[in-house]
Sequence to fold (540 residues):
Amino acid sequence: MPHKTKYIVVTGGVLSGLGKGIATASVGRLISSKLRVIPIKCDGYLNTDPGTMNPIEHGEVFVLDDGGEVDMDFGHYERFLGVVGKSDWNLTMGKVYSRILEKERRGDFLGKTVQLIPHVTDEIKAHFLKIAQEERADVVIIEIGGTVGDMENELFIEAVRQLGQDVGGSNIIYIHLTYVPIPSNVGEHKTKPTQQSVKLLNERGIRPDIIIARSPEPLPQKVKDKISLFCNIPAEAVISGEDVETVYEIPLMYDEQNLTELLHKKLGIYSPPKLEKWRKLVDAIKHPEREVNIAICGKYTDLRDSYASIIESLIHSGAHLSARVNIKWIETTEIENGKLTVEKALENISGVIVPGGFGVRGIEGKIDVIRYCRENDIPFLGICYGMQLAIIEFARNVCGLKGANTTEAESEGIEVAHPVICLLPSQKGLKKKGGTMRLGGQDVFLKKSTLANRLYKADKIRERFRHRYEVNPEFVEIFEKCGMVFSGYEPQENIMQVMELPEHSYFIAVQYHPELISKLEKPEPLFYNLVKYALAKSKV
Ligand code: GLN
Fold:
């Protein structure tokens, strides 16, 4: 007997960048207390996954425990729904087409003309049903990337229309996320773009059951009534999605407008949300007792989306410490080219993060920042590349290994005298770029009585990785002699996972990405303690 699954489809209209991923995650959160809610994200691009895209264009690449490199919306899904995502749940058009072409060559369609409809749409629908069954999902929530009317997502939209017919009206609802602007010259909510976007959806055979209207201000009842009239849906199904101080407020805002009851009624489900702890933490975010300045030093600092999970992790930690974390972005290329001094960059800063990254641009600036933190006892957290650069800094300035560097620099023509960071053995000889890094969740063993061991209160943890290079094992002894402690390790392959400097009050760097598993209700210890130690030093 197949498991009876309900479907919620979320489409977007008017413009991109409205926070559809967060809206989807928030809707899921409202009904996930008693039900297994599985998110699926459909992306219209032809890349297999976002792993090979530039984070400036596409935002952060989110890494799943199973090693999947997926859309950053999975960060919101995991943070709001508490699920551990799987790479299969991110369906790109690239994946769909490659499956279709594989099947065609195998002869699965012998004698037939392979067409967008039904073959591609069938493939998409079959994927939804497969996940629903495999996961024994009570509710599958499908987010279609982009906006209705984009050529790229037409086939996904057609597939979810057909899905409605296949599973029947009481088993599926469509939510449309739109925008209701308040032009400054008129000073009132304008619903026309929403009306037009719903029309586009209607033309594709989909009538939304619920409209969530993003807007700078709450929607007055008369605006809800107008949308109701023109878009042919009850006014109670028009939900105001006004701008809020923190995204964690969004499920609360939807719940206050009775969206939960509406979902229960429309889908015939019952799963009241558990939001007490969440509400308290949102309150702490909105009314902090203190504040602290933390710097993030990187080269993609122009686009905050590249570091989305790090920002969230700091918010989670701040909420538990009743502190507002003010993030200062430091573009390390400016330190490198002399436009900015480290002293100036770190003025009034009580804690520093050097995040992950690739290539040599900006790394000398990051190394200067790390040196300053080490020499001036500024709380420091290095993440992935940030750990590798902390090792390089230590090698050069403490161990006296002039010209120490990562062999990643060699590919850009830089001579490396001491390859203290080198390619992982498993990476040697790899030609293909997509999905070939050391990816996903791994167990990390923590040495007893180290800082990491104390912070995590555990001997073994599980964290997610995304890298090609590692600490060169040949140098480990020299580093240890000079006072560095490798407190986290991978016993079989001898990969150094955590390094710390015990002389320092808080100097810790990790090869994994702790930001990927932090949650509002359970902040990742490394961020929590960075904020805690920084608060102790803070003068703001
Ligand atoms: N470029 C480094 C590597 O491949 C670090 C990667 C990262 O920071 N994610 O190992």
In short: Residues 31 and 328 are 36 Å apart (CA to CA).
